[in-house]
Design a protein that fits this description.
179 residues
Length: 179
Amino acid sequence: MGEAERTGANPASAAPALFRTRAPFYSETVERKVAELGYRLIGNAHEDVLTALEATLKAIYRHLVRTRLPDQFSRLGSKQAIGTAFQNIERATALYAHLGIEPFSVLAPADVECLELNIQKRHVLGHNLGVADESYVDIAGDGKAGETIRLLGNEIRLFAESCSAVVSNLEQHLLPDTP
């Protein structure tokens, strides 16, 4: 019978303490890895919010063009016509203008700026592993090129709320007109 069995101790919980006594840098390494994991998880949450907004903008737009402007669908609703337009507020607004809809009109100017910044953050997270480049620094006016961009849970929550407001606004256009 081993020590853990005699004392009722959990051998898995004892292992880290034992390892720390044998590896002096264990706790520092674990803390760094936990911090990195936390950053990556919150970065994934951030990317997921914007991906959901982009997919929703695209799906609603294509549906509305197909139902309201069916004779123009091949010109306005094709993959070539849309491309990556919904990754950019200005281009998304231009597409929705064909339908007479302003999807971002429900947002205050500060919320639109926040949305634009978060679109840029997603680009940096997805393509630069979270490391700011000169383009991001110019747009954000924050941080330095070569530094990891800042991600805070509360900022992502506010960003998600803005995205939700845009989607709720667009949902109204999906409902049939009532007399």
